[in-house]
């Protein structure tokens, strides 16, 4: 079996990154090794996202670009996978006939067979978007991109049907992996030297709760967290994403009592107005979110809280937007990902009347970002002078002498590199704060619990 190269082009969320790692694992026995160079690739897989219409246009543009590459190298196999593949299916292949296969989100288990058939010219093309009801696509070994942190999907799909979101339509009904399977994968990652595990799902707080789950129904996310926390060799456990309507006191207590569970919760608020939250079908009110944030802060005083916010949802008035600004200021998030609402065809919100004009949306987004940036900076400035435990990731993007890592609270830190290695836990004295990151200097090679004030 000769050596072959596969290039992944990945769009969208961490779930897509995790799926791509698993696809690389499926392809390894066929002799495929990863490459960054699309010119030397024998196989190019575009793992797609369709959360935004603009993302889809961009991906069609990228697929179009590959036509020339295929003309120069007719043996090149091109595949499209992920959410947009699921949504577009046959339409995608008609629009881009140089694509050899289109596999939907539930068909990753058929990837190796499909590639093998096409590369050996046993089949001309494949389009398979059958929706899977199980979690087979999670099985098999992942070829991980990161060196320090391992992403482990614990569940798949979503049953929440937020009115702006396409995910439940393209990722299917919510189903969870069994705890044994997750723990086995975590143990394997730890044995390979990973120090941090991030448990992934669209709505991790409802892990194991759905009758369609393969996990024993009633097994809670908190129980899973406790098991992962107890694995020998683990340093840090993270998870994403939480849904406010399902985050339980049991999970908060598990973080409080856990030795390795990081005190960071990403809890998407999306909006501060009850009217809009209802139209979004989020399943909570501003008051309920406020109470939950207070409860989290009461039990985990040093927690870092981050969020997602949508600006310009249909029908959003000035007063609704002000409610978002007010609640965001009141809660004081460490950071927020802010999004302009963009209609996603196939979702209920896209058909709602009173779409907000583009220029109004943009002005509101600017105002929200300006406010949040000030809050983030003020929170980070309070960390100047303190000493933080940092898990070393490696050299920063722009300067090989400056290294990067994260605190337990998920703050990115930069410092001048000495002799530390990826995966080391070091102490950094923070001497400068910016909106999105901290800068500092090495304080010691080993984290000294007595001097560390949390992240
Ligand atoms: S919880 Fe809502 S926003 Fe998140 S994936 Fe499910 S439907 Fe989409």
Straight-line distance between termini: 49 Å
The CATH architecture of the largest domain can be given as 3-Layer(aba) Sandwich
Q: Which percent bin holds the helix content?
A: 25-40%
Write down the overall geometry: globular
The largest β sheet comes out as: 6 strands, parallel
What is the total domain count? Answer: 4
- What is the averaged pLDDT score? 92
Structure description:
The chain has about 450 residues and is α/β, with parallel strands linked by helices. It has four domains: about 5-130, 3-Layer(aba) Sandwich (Rossmann fold), CATH 3.40.50; about 145-260, 2-Layer Sandwich (Transcription Regulator spoIIAA); about 265-380, Transcription Regulator spoIIAA (2-Layer Sandwich); about 385-450, Beta Barrel (OB fold (Dihydrolipoamide Acetyltransferase, E2P)), CATH 2.40.50.140. The protein is built from 13 helices and 19 strands. It has a six-stranded parallel β-sheet, with helices on both faces. α1 (about 15-25) links the parallel β1 (about 5-10) and β2 (about 30-35). α8 (about 220-230) runs parallel beside α9 and α12 (about 320-330) packs parallel to α13 (about 360-380). The longest helix has 24 residues, at about 360-380. The protein starts with a strand and ends in an 11-residue tail after the last strand. Iron/sulfur cluster binds near residues 161 and 243.
